[in-house]
Specification:
The structure is a single chain. The chain is α+β, with helices and mostly antiparallel strands. The chain has 2 domains: 167 residues, Gyrase A, domain 2, CATH 3.30.1360; 45 residues, no CATH class. It is built from 11 helices and 7 strands. Strands 1-2-3-7-4 form a 5-stranded antiparallel β-sheet. Strands 5-6 form a two-stranded antiparallel sheet. The longest helix has 27 residues. It is flat. The structure holds flavin-adenine dinucleotide (FAD). Flavin-adenine dinucleotide (FAD) binds next to helix 7.
Length: 291
Amino acid sequence: MARMIVEAAEALLDKEIKVLDKGFVRLVDYMGGDQRIVQSARVSYGEGTKTYRQDRGLIHYLMKNWHTSPFEQVQLTFHTKMPIFVARQWVRHRTARLNEISGRYSVMKDEFYLPSPEHVCYQSESNKQGRSESLPFDEAMKVIEHMEQEQKANYANYEKLLEGNVARELARANLPVSLYTEWYWQIDLHNLFHFLRLRMDAHAQYEIRVFGEALAQCAKAVSPLAYEAFEEHILGSVSFSRAECEALALMLAGKDHALTGRSLQSFDDKVAKLKAAVPAEQPEELVLPVA
Ligand SMILES: Cc1cc2nc3c(=O)[nH]c(=O)nc-3n(C[C@H](O)[C@H](O)[C@H](O)COP(=O)(O)OP(=O)(O)OC[C@H]3O[C@@H](n4cnc5c(N)ncnc54)[C@H](O)[C@@H]3O)c2cc1C
């Protein structure tokens, strides 16, 4: 089959999806889509092209049963711009290929991240890696002004070093992690879903979560059925530990369980997610050929 063209993805190509104050996600290119997933999966099941409903059933079946390799057949290339502290979290996802702007070669631009006031929050008491409620508006603005002053002073020092002909690779060393960086990033759909599961989660930092949402928009355009299956079987699913399974069984039987403190909080969050579930329309039941 010739190169796969997906209209919704074509419409997104080269368009910057704005993220945070100065960042973006831009879909540069893609290879494959839902049709590539079903084609490659049917190599293992020895079947040819089917109807849309059967393709949808197959994609849901693959996602539900962790038959992940057909999703690796779809590739996406992005150009993204984000603060360095976001890039530091992003780069932990090793199953991608990237090329980043070089601060040794180029003069880094005077572009720093400043949060909007509602995202200037107090340290969370319950989650050492998280935020709690926002500061009062005036206090938040003072924090933002303070951050901006520091960024300006830092950049002025950087420029002074460059004017003195200090090497760019050294002059940049004191620039803060709020500075924006850019890279090309290529990843397959299976590993992008892994990234999105972790980084769109409520426990991920807000500043990377919003990039996750922009990447998700592109994934959805390239492979809408795969994205629907990802939402249904991964994003929308809830996993319970053994102790939580016991607590759930007791709860369903109308009995008390023994969970307390943070364990109880985590359990309650999962039960709330269960209750809020809005499932996709049931996909066609897949009947695999008998081997
Ligand atoms: C909310 C949150 C908090 C976090 N906090 C911290 C933190 O405090 N400190 C910190 O250092 N990190 C932290 N991380 C990063 C986290 O530990 C992972 O490194 C990151 O999420 C990437 O996940 P991954 O390794 O599964 O992804 P990928 O690198 O994309 O790998 C996908 C899978 O491939 C396999 N794999 C890939 N490369 C290797 C390899 N070299 N060896 C073995 N297996 C491999 C693994 O099975 C892995 O799960 C945090 C992540 C999240 C989402």
